[in-house]
Specification:
The protein is mainly beta. It has seven helices and 48 strands. The chain has a domain of 178 residues: Immunoglobulin-like (Sandwich). The chain is 7% helix and 48% strand. It has a 22-stranded antiparallel barrel. A five-stranded mixed beta sheet has the order 3-2-5-6-9, with no helix packed on it. Strand 11 and strand 12 form a beta hairpin.
Length: 982
């Protein structure tokens, strides 16, 4: 049935394209359109702007005003040459001459106003892109609006992966940060149809933000509109149009259906609304690629595909209300419900490892913006998120983990009932002075998390190799005793079991204050400086000062827009000790819960009682936070050179140096002292605290040093095409891969200093849009990255730390033949003696990844022509207050020309309220058909190979890499989409 539907849909789309000439009878041959967005120097929208279009050879002028989103829309203009002027009190008059409007085409012209210092008129050339010394206008930043968004996936999970790749490598192991309308978020992005603009890597050294600017992704959603608009989308996919994931065992029957829509319009003269919804039904698949035992205990490859269906519903109403001429209130609510089955399955994880997950989320965001006089803007933002997660495992049996072969039995994660209550309050004040743009504010975040978990309550056995598991299973079938099985080289290496109180509750809070000033010393030179103070509970470090400094120098004179801009900056950026780490430390603290570890247990496959664990001298394992733990921070230096190559093209070259200090890791501080542990004697070793077991401690002793070179380009050919992209070179060394990583040697962390897993050397991202004849639009997106580093290990615990991450040494002429492993990565000694130098961490490198996505779309217009906006049809927001809660320089503001700074970082807008460039026509209705190909060249992007030397799959990948490079159950995927706009 799904196959017939997909084929019918494809044939219908093809027939519609062939009938394009007949459908074009609705177009009018000699009438064109001119539309665009008016913004101030800070890139915030300006509503109520007077826009006048006058024939160049004389004649009747047309005058309209911009609406609440700063959009002007001149419809039904006869083909010809025109002059355009824009007037707003407090701004210099904008004039663009000799604009050619062609019949049957819609031309877009965005306008950026300058602050009026003396009465002046700004003559604008044909340049559609230009450089300036505004710290928020760095050419290395990427802005995605309108048609450029078409290149990205409509699926929110894939969109998140694509944006993360677009942001490039952030400094350190923690990656970048997402913001939605100014609020921090960790996942669950809004539906794509509700997004009006995305900004990446903008103003990287602003003290307004706690996170690094490089890697920061800011998403701005659509406000309400002053006319009724709507957009409805159906996006579907079926296996009939896809190629198979090479690791799936059989045709998985993959399919998806994504339905989205939004409606916006006025509620009254002072209020407007925007409502969006999304419903997604996907049949994903878990592809298992492992090695198991057959009924005769022979080792055999095992491949299986397990369906993992998922459904998601998102609802998001929003209301914008103008309380007074200078005060705007915006309220947004988002409801999110998702259900997923058979999660946690794939690669080595067998079907019995699956679990179901049900999540529910409520988000309320309130933004209040007030303009005080002509110089001051105050913004208050409040967000509350209420999330609930219920996880149910498919099996309660003990987990069987055979390193490098398979993981069976029940899921070690157990049952989970988790509630996340997040509160965030933010206040920002902006002041525009003669040569200064000053901004200061504060943010308070609070997290309350009741947490009920039975993780590892079912117990887990670990076998160091498939050979050991095979000997064990054969021995049990033959009736051998555990001692006899161990003598043959069998038996599990370790058993773990957690007992105690399943319920815990944490309270986490952090506060930040900041001050920043963008000082325009000259018209071509801006000095930006600021200071941020942060503090949090739970750890002893309560005073974190983060200075920021930046300069921007326009080279080549001060009387015109610079062709070259030199930027440099420095900043300190702190990371918080997250609530997830707090939760782990409070759960397994030896009071609420305790984990027991038994080395070389003799009771497999039985689960002993608590008293039985005491009889076999099981070691307890607890988590704790180091008493001297400091907030990790990054010192970052950057310099960049930006150049306007042509009227429509800018390029930039940036060098970044980042140094991480007090980086987090986990260490067993009660592991046996070096040289005192014998792997053949599980109870051997001298411990620093003899009366205690394993102590896993969160420590802030890690470091990293990172050098990056990033080359950006941006092409804005207004009529036909836009392109953007970057290349980055990344060289980094670190002794930690993040807070959950353990060192190989608990007493020599420096031995792990080397290339980390986030040390991907090369990355390339290219994207854009191309308008073709007959209304076709192409939206390509290319991603490339070099191989991901991976660790090569021996699959055993040689240090007594209970962590199976020890690396081999390089083999020498004196290495016993039984301890030699010859591989394409080198010849290794899998049983190094204490003190022997080991191979570097993450010694292996995975394969490169490349993917090209392409969307092809065609829009048909019909219905009566939409009328022009007039002065009486503008938004009630006459003072230029953007109803999102983001305000830029307002009429009457006395900021210097060029407007250093950004009063409206939360309210940037460059799109119309109709929600979609593809359907931008002079007609009342439009229908857009598109086909979106993911990985159109069908390139197989493999995950990093298995790094365990004892695994039968060593050196081979057993999954696709994921992220923006592959898709669940498929390798190449084609989606079909239809969009209706009105």
């Amino acid at each position: 049935m799904r196959l017939n539907f997909a084929k019918s849909f494809f044939l219908f789309s093809l027939a519609t394209l062939l009938l394009a000439p007949e459908l074009r009878i609705f177009a009018q041959a000699n009438l064109g359109n001119l539309t665009g967005t008016v913004t101030d120097p800070s890139s915030a929208i300006v509503s109520g702007a007077k826009v006048t279009l006058t024939p160049a050879q004389g004649g009747e002028s047309k005058t309209i005003t911009t609406n609440q989103q700063g959009v002007y829309d001149l419809r039904g203009v006869e083909g010809g040459t025109y002059n355009l002027s824009v007037e707003v009190p407090g701004f210099a008059i904008f004039v663009r001459e000799n604009i050619v409007i062609r019949g049957g085409q819609t031309q877009k012209l965005d306008i950026s106003l300058a602050i009026q210092v003396e009465k002046q008129e700004v003559q604008v050339s044909d340049e559609s892109t230009k450089l300036d010394v505004n710290p928020s206008s760095n050419a290395g930043a990427i802005t995605i609006t309108e048609k450029d968004l078409d290149a990205f996936s409509d699926d929110p999970d894939e969109l998140e992966a694509q944006l993360t790749a677009l942001a490039g490598p952030s400094a350190g192991p923690n990656g970048g940060q997402f913001y939605v309308d100014g609020f921090t978020v960790e996942n669950q992005l809004p539906p794509k149809n509700s997004i009006r603009e995305i900004r990446v890597n903008q103003n990287p050294f602003s003290s307004e933000y706690d996170k690094l600017g490089y890697g920061r992704i800011e998403i701005f959603t659509k406000p309400g509109t002053n006319q009724f608009h709507g957009k409805f989308t159906a996006d579907g996919n079926d296996l009939a149009f896809d190629t198979r994931d090479p690791f799936v065992a059989q045709e998985p029957g993959y399919h998806s259906l994504l339905v989205t829509g939004d409606v916006s319009g006025p509620l009254s003269k002072k209020a407007s609304f925007f409502f969006d919804f999304q419903n997604r039904n996907v049949r994903n698949n878990g592809a298992i690629s492992a090695v198991v035992l057959d009924p005769n205990f022979n080792q055999i490859p095992f491949a299986q595909t397990v369906p993992s269906p998922a459904s998601r519903t998102v609802l998001g109403p929003r209301i914008d209300y103008q309380l007074t001429p200078t005060n705007t209130l915006s309220v947004t609510y988002q409801f999110w419900r998702e259900h997923q089955d058979n999660q946690g399955i794939g690669q080595f994880a067998l079907a019995s490892q699956g679990y179901s997950l049900h999540s529910l989320q409520h988000i309320l965001r309130v933004n209040d913006t007030q303009v005080i006089g002509s110089r001051i803007v105050n913004e208050t933002h409040f967000q509350t998120m209420q999330q609930a997660y219920v996880q149910t495992p498919a099996s309660q049996l003990p987990e069987i983990n055979v390193i490098g072969a398979f993981t069976g039995g029940g899921s070690n994660e157990g049952s989970l009932n988790y509630h996340h209550h997040h509160y965030e309050l933010d206040n920002d004040t902006s002041i525009s002075l003669n040569k200064h743009y000053v901004k200061f504010g504060a943010r308070l975040r609070t997290v309350v998390e009741p947490y009920l978990t039975t993780g590892n309550f079912n117990g887990a056995y670990t076998f160091s190799s498939l050979n050991a598991y095979q000997i064990t299973q054969k021995g049990l079938a033959q009736g051998l005793t555990p001692a006899q099985i161990a003598a043959l080289g069998g038996g599990p290496s370790q058993f773990t079991l957690t007992v105690g109180q399943p319920f815990v509750r944490i309270f986490a809070e952090d506060t930040g204050f900041y001050f920043t000033d963008d000082w325009r010393l000259r018209s071509n030179f801006t000095l930006s400086y600021g200071l941020r103070f942060e503090t949090q509970n739970y750890i002893g470090d309560h005073a974190d000062w983060a200075p920021r400094l930046g300069i921007a120098w326009g080279i080549g004179g001060s009387n015109r827009a610079p062709k070259t801009v030199l930027r440099a900056g420095f900043g300190i950026f702190y990371d918080r000790f997250g609530s997830t780490l707090q939760l782990q430390a409070q759960t397994l603290n030896g009071i609420n819960q305790t984990q027991y570890i038994v080395r070389n247990p003799s009771f497999y496959p039985s689960i002993p009682s608590l008293a039985g664990l005491a009889s076999v001298q099981a070691a307890t394992t607890t988590y704790q936070v180091a008493s001297n733990l400091r907030s990790p921070y990054t010192l970052q230096w950057a310099s960049s050179l930006e150049r306007q190559v042509t009227k429509t093209t800018t390029v930039s070259l940036t060098y970044l140096y980042s140094q991480g200090v007090h980086q987090l890791l986990t260490n067993n501080i009660n592991a046996p002292l070096p040289g005192t542990f014998n792997p053949a004697l599980p109870l051997s070793g001298i411990r620093p605290f003899p009366s205690r077991g394993n102590i896993y401690e969160y420590e802030s002793v890690g470091i990293f040093k990172q050098n990056q070179i990033i080359a950006n380009f941006n092409v804005r050919a207004a009529r036909n095409a836009t392109f953007f992209g970057f290349y980055s070179y990344n060289h980094v060394n670190s002794d930690t891969n993040g807070p959950s990583s353990f060192p190989d040697n608990p007493y020599d962390i420096a031995a792990d200093y080397g290339r980390p897993t986030f040390g991907i050397r090369h990355r390339v991202v290219l994207g854009g849009s191309i308008s073709l004849k007959h209304g076709f639009l192409l939206s390509p997106l290319v991603n490339f990255q070099s191989g991901v580093p991976f660790n090569i290990t021996v699959g055993q615990d040689l240090s007594g730390s209970t962590i199976f991450n020890q690396r081999p040494a390089f083999a020498t002429s004196s290495t016993p033949a039984a301890d030699i492993a010859s591989t394409r990565y080198g010849t290794f000694n899998i049983a190094p003696v204490p003190g022997q130098p080991l191979i570097p961490i993450d010694f292996g490198t995975g394969p490169n990844s490349f993917v090209m996505n392409l969307r092809v779309s065609k829009t048909f217009a019909f219905g009566n022509k939409t009328g022009e906006h007039s002065a009486g049809d503008t938004s009630v927001n006459t003072q230029g207050i953007q109803s999102q809660g983001g305000v830029g320089f307002r009429p009457g503001a006395a900021n210097p020309a060029g407007g250093a700074g950004n009063l409206g970082s939360r309210g940037l807008s460059n799109t119309s309220g109709s929600g979609g460039s593809s359907g931008s026509t002079s007609k009342r209705y439009s229908l857009t058909f598109s086909a979106s190909g993911r990985n159109i060249f069908n390139n197989v992007n493999l995950a990093p190979p298995v790094g365990n030397l004892t695994s039968p799959l060593f050196g081979r990948s057993n999954a696709l890499i994921g992220g923006p490079y592959s898709f669940a159950g498929t390798n190449r995927r084609i989606d079909f989409q239809v969009v209706f706009n009105f």
